[in-house]
Write a structure and sequence with these properties.
By secondary structure, this protein is of the alpha+beta class. The protein has 11 helices and 10 strands. The protein folds into 2 domains: 130 residues, 3-Layer(aba) Sandwich (NADH Oxidase), CATH 3.40.109; 201 residues, NADH Oxidase. Helix 5 runs antiparallel to helix 11.
């Protein structure tokens, strides 16, 4: 008997023996990790009230790569947290910069709701270069009380917006919903597209599956995810970030030392093959895809693409729709070169001058819990 097979059988036996002890365990995330989703409560500092909504923005690997300086009165200065990057899967930090945009969009919506107008100056000390982010500010936001400012109805969706990675229902996304999402970002100056039917659906699904498979079997990229994988209520409550897994089986494997997150699994490991099979089934359930394409790919463009995606997802939430970004095929590391080229060609984007900034599943799905958040105070730069 091969060593790998024997280990799997022994592990299976241990998990089976431990199963009765876990029948009462819940897969729900610990309440401490979800406190931020309750809103600002009685917060009297207007800037902190606004920020309590901004930190709920969608972001890569749930890293929450935001640092905020409130030391100048009436100003919110946003920095990228350079300790929270994804150098393997997001080598140029394009997705991290987009997350600065999702943050700024929710900040603006919250400011309007509170009766404040925002003046957002991007990269006040100069734009990041194309290959790396640095310690310069992403944005300086000036707040001005203005009774005439128009509130945005998308604000009401912030606490309801969650990324849904589950299987989607076999219900079509109707043209009225498509138009509503398109209208939500009509002024963003981006190319927005949606596919809801036709033979091209199968081509989208095939690209998504291959890109996921590549990320799962590439040792350094799967290890990057393992580094921010939080398993069990204690880890999830401690970190309140990253990729959360609270299923009883995963918790048992960790407790028994059968899931070593310091080593990349081989391509035939059950941990890899089962995740690929599960992902493929979810992709096969997907009846619609959404994307954003930009002319150019400078840092300001990336921020604005993030703002547009935040609005699109909030608009989808208002319609009862779920979104799930398919980031793998858009990532700029060598192993993804073919899926990257394929999705650009599929969407009619000239890779020499255009960039697919976002590609996501779209559809109806059962409700899911939100991702953990670290809380507004953990993002503040102290004096």
């Amino acid at each position: 008997m091969k060593r790998r097979t024997s280990l799997q059988l022994i592990g299976g036996g241990l998990v089976f023996a431990a199963a009765p002890m876990l029948t009462a365990c819940s897969s729900d995330l610990p309440p401490q990790a979800l406190v931020a989703w309750q809103g600002p409560g009685n917060e009297t500092d207007v800037r902190k009230w606004i920020l309590s909504y901004a930190i709920l923005a969608p972001n890569s690997h749930n890293l929450q790569s935001w640092r905020v300086d409130l030391r100048q009165q009436g100003i919110i200065t946003l920095y990228c947290d350079t300790t929270r990057l994804l150098p393997e899967t997001d080598p140029y930090s394009r997705q991290i910069v987009m997350a600065q945009g999702t943050f700024l969009e929710l900040l603006d919506l919250a400011a309007r709701e509170k009766g404040f107008r925002t003046t957002i100056e991007l990269f006040p000390q100069g734009e990041f270069g194309p290959k790396a982010v640095d310690q310069r500010p992403v944005a300086r936001v000036r707040l001005e009380a203005d009774a005439s400012v128009t509130k945005d109805p998308l604000f009401a969706q912030i606490l309801r917006r969650h990324t849904n990675r589950e299987a989607y229902e076999a219900r079509p996304v109707l043209p009225d919903a498509v138009r509503a999402i398109q209208t939500s970002v009509a002024s963003a100056g981006l190319q927005l597209g949606m596919l809801t039917q036709g033979d091209a659906l199968q081509q989208h699904r095939a690209i998504a599956k291959e890109a996921w498979r590549i990320e799962m079997i590439t040792p350094r990229t799967i290890l990057e995810s393992y580094k921010v994988l939080r398993v069990g209520p204690e880890e999830i409550a401690k970190h309140r970030d990253g990729l959360s897994v609270n299923a009883p089986l995963a918790r048992t494997l960790v407790s028994l030392g059968l899931f070593d997150r310091s080593k990349a699994p081989t391509s035939d490991d059950i941990a890899v093959t089962s995740q690929i099979k599960d992902f493929n089934a979810k992709i096969d359930s997907t009846g619609a895809f959404f994307w954003l394409v930009t002319d150019g790919n400078d840092r300001t463009t990336q921020v604005n693409a993030g703002r547009a995606y935040a609005r699109a997802q909030l608009a989808a939430t208002a319609l009862g729709l779920s979104m799930h970004p398919l980031s793998q095929a858009l990532q700029e590391y060598p192993e993804q070169a073919k899926p990257y080229a394929d999705i650009h060609r599929m969407l009619g984007a000239d890779a020499a001058r255009q960039t697919v900034q976002m590609w996501a599943r779209l559809g109806y799905a059962p409700a899911v819990q939100p991702s953990p958040r670290r809380g507004m105070a953990s993002h503040l730069i102290s004096a």
